[in-house]
Design a protein that fits this description.
alpha/beta; 8-stranded mixed beta sheet; 4-stranded parallel beta sheet; globular
Length: 506
Amino acid sequence: MKKTIVLLIIFQALSCKEKKEQLNLTQGLHISNVTLISTEDGNYNPYIGHLVVEKDKIVYIDKNKPSINGTFEQIDGTGKFVIPGLIDSHVHITDIQGMRPDHIEKYPELIKEFNNQMPRSYLYYGFTSLINLGGISDERINSFNKQPLKPDLYHIGYSGATVANGYPMIYTPEEFRFEIEPNFIYMESQAEHIPDKYKPANHTPKAVVERIKNSGAIAVKSYYETGFGRMANLPLPTKSIMTELLNESHANGLVLTIHANSLEGHSFMADVGVDILAHGLWKWEKYKDVPADSLPLEIKETLDLQIQKQIGYTPTLTVIEGEEALVDTKFLNQSALKKVVPKNLLEWYNTEEGQWFAKELFSASNVEEVHKTYGNAQAHAMLVLKYLSDHNGLILFGTDTPSGPIYANQPGHNGNWELKLMKEAEVPLNKILASATINNAKAFQLDSSIGSLAIGKKANIIMMTKNPLRDIEAYDAIEKIIIRGEVIKREDLEVKEKRQASNGYN
C-alpha cells in the first residue's frame, strides 16, 4: 500500500512538472528558444527560454515552453539574444542638431525631415526609452508622441530648476529668459536682475518642485555650472537651496538630477547627497595638467563619497568626443550616419553655413591643439569612470544628445558611440548593459514598468545576433526592436530618402 502511495505521489509530481503554462492571447507574440539576458540586481545569468507578450506587456518568461492559444506571432530566436530596451537618461529632443534658431526658421523642410526621423533613429539603435533632461513644452511632447514609431518619452517639465540668471538661462536673451525658464529659483543676490512680476514666493524650491511635479515630470533637473567662454562666474545654488530642492523632490516622489562636470561641482553635490549627476567629472580644474594615468587624492575622495552614497553617475563621454569631432573632416562621411540622418541635412552640415559652430568654437585653435585639449579631458573622464566601475559606483547610461548645437551628437548614433566609449574606458560589458537598462530604470523610479524582462513590464525588447555580455559590437547587431509589443525590423527604421530638386544651400 505504501509503495502504491509513493508511486502515485511521484506520478503527480512529474505530471505537474510537465504541465505547461496555458496562455490565451488575442494580440500576442512568442519568442522561442532565445537566449534571455536580463537582471534585477546587476547579476546576469543568461539562459535559453521563451518570452511571451500580450499586447504591450510581457506575460511569460521561462525556460519551459508554454502552451499558447489564440492569436499571436511566432519568432524563432534560436541563436539570437534578447535584452530589455535601452534607456538613454539624458537627451534633448527639442534641439535640432547643429542648428541655431535662425537656421531652424530658414530651413523648415530640413526640420520636418529631422523630426520625423529622430524617434526612429533612437529606436534603430535600441533606445526604447528616453528621458528629456531639458525644458519641454506640452506641444513638443504631443508632437513627439504622435509619431507612429517612437520610444517612450519621460521629462523634467517646462524647464529645469536653475538659479535666477544662472546656467543655462543666462544664454537666453534677458527679455525672454524668465518666460523660457519658468522654474527658476529666486535668489536675493539676483533680485535687481529679476523682473518685478516674478514674486519670490512663486520661485522657492518648494513652489518650483510642485510645478514640475504637476507638469507630469519624473525628475527635477538643476545645475552647478560656473560657466565657460564669455559666460563665466555665473550665479550658483547655495547648499541650503540644493538641500531644499532635494527634500522637496523626494516629498513629491521625484528624483533630483544635477548638471555638473567639474571637481567643484561633483564635490559640492556629493556633499549634498543628490540622486544623480547628469555628467561625468572631466573638468579637473587645478589638476587639469595631472597625467591621465593617475587620480589625485581629492578626486578620489569625491568619488568615494559618491560611491558610498550610491549617487548615480552619468559619464556622457560623447559630450567631449562630439565637440572634438567637429574638426574631423571624415566624421560626416560615416556610412552609419546615412542610415539615421536625412540626406539633405547631412549635405547641409557639410556647407560653410553648416560648419558655423566649429568655426566659432575653434577659431583660435588649430586641429592639433583641439585634439590635445579634448584628448586630455577625455582621458581624465575615462579614468574617473574606470575608478567608479572598479569600486562599485552606480553608473547610469546617458549621452546628453545633443550637448550643444553639435551635429556630431546624432539621435541613437550618439548612444551607440557612448556605449563603445564606455568599453574603451574598461567598464565591463555586464555593467555597460546594466547602466542602460535596470540601473537607469531604478534610478529614475521606472523599474516597475521598464529596465528588465519580467512579467507585467512593458514589452520594450531588443533582439540581437550577438551577445552584449561578450561583444560590444552586439549593439550594432540588432535584428528586431519590439516597442510596446510591436515588432519592427531594424532596417525599416532607416532614413527613407527624400530629395528636393534644388536644396538651395549656399
